[in-house]
């Protein structure tokens, strides 16, 4: 059985004070990690303080990004080695905003995946599609190519701990979520791609998330789909009360 994964990605939002207060407020309201894993990805500026205030909590404080080298003359980048030494366990790589605004290629994302694994952390690999590709019927081949490229050279044992996030960029922050059928179709195709790369057994172990205008109103329906193992929320994760409701989706009416 795949443990459900409810994640939030704050992007470049909140402040240090509000980030720390957020962790303090939710830490006692989350399900145990062996039932539902919960994670918040935050600015590297906040991570240490969040970790210090997250003792005895099931929440995974998570990095939004990292570089593919451990150290060197890379001004402004975030070292995966430093993240690992801090106690970070998950790192998001390949988010559509990194691809679009910072020109990250599939090759760069693949290097980041290897850097995260090399430093004993788990990558949350995002793959996206644009509305243009969706309307032209090219969206699924695009997603398959991104997944295949991101996992190039990753062995089967390491792949079992990877998380994949299917995030159609036309649904991110737009208020227009994919239907449950569209979300499941995308996640199912990703699982079939993983089976082609590795095996059916390995594909069945890898968790696949849906991201794109996730709310407390649609999460329960999404989580009922057989190939959706969790969500990666954006706007809904900025409010502690809303994130707690997402994390406890099984009790929502």
Automatic annotation (TrEMBL):
Residues that coordinate or bind substrate: 9-11, 173, 213
Function: Involved in the gluconeogenesis. Catalyzes stereospecifically the conversion of dihydroxyacetone phosphate (DHAP) to D-glyceraldehyde-3-phosphate (G3P).
Pfam families: TIM
Annotated protein name in UniProt: Triosephosphate isomerase
Enzyme class: isomerase
Keyword presence, Magnesium: no
One GO cellular component term: cytosol
Species of the source: Fructilactobacillus lindneri DSM 20690 = JCM 11027
InterPro entries, A to Z: Aldolase_TIM (IPR013785), TIM_sf (IPR035990), TrioseP_Isoase_bac/euk (IPR022896), Triosephosphate_isomerase (IPR000652), Triosephosphate_isomerase_AS (IPR020861)
Subunit structure: Homodimer.
Catalyzed chemical reaction(s): D-glyceraldehyde 3-phosphate = dihydroxyacetone phosphate
């Amino acid at each position: 059985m795949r443990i459900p994964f409810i994640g939030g990605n704050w992007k470049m939002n909140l402040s240090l004070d509000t980030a720390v207060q957020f962790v303090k407020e939710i830490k006692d309201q989350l399900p145990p990690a062996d039932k539902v894993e919960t994670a918040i990805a935050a600015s590297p500026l906040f991570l240490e303080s969040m970790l210090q205030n997250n003792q005895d909590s099931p929440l995974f404080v998570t990095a939004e990004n990292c570089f593919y080298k451990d150290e060197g003359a890379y001004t402004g980048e975030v070292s995966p080695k430093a993240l690992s030494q801090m106690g970070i366990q998950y790192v998001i790589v390949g988010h559509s905003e990194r691809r679009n605004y910072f020109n990250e290629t599939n090759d760069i994302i693949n290097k980041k995946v290897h850097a995260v694994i090399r430093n004993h952390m788990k990558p949350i690999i995002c793959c996206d599609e644009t509305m243009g590709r969706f309307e032209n019927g090219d969206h699924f081949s695009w997603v398959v190519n991104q997944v295949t490229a991101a996992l190039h050279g990753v062995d089967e044992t390491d792949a079992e701990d990877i998380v994949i996030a299917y995030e159609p960029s036309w649904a991110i922050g737009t208020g227009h979520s994919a239907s449950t059928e569209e979300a499941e179709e995308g996640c199912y195709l990703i699982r079939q791609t993983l089976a082609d790369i590795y095996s059916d057994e390995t594909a069945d172990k890898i968790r696949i998330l849906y991201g794109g205008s996730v709310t407390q109103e649609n999460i329960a329906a999404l989580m009922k789909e057989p190939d959706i193992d969790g969500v990666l929320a954006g706007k809904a994760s900025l409010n502690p009360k809303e994130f707690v409701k997402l994390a406890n989706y099984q009790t929502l009416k």
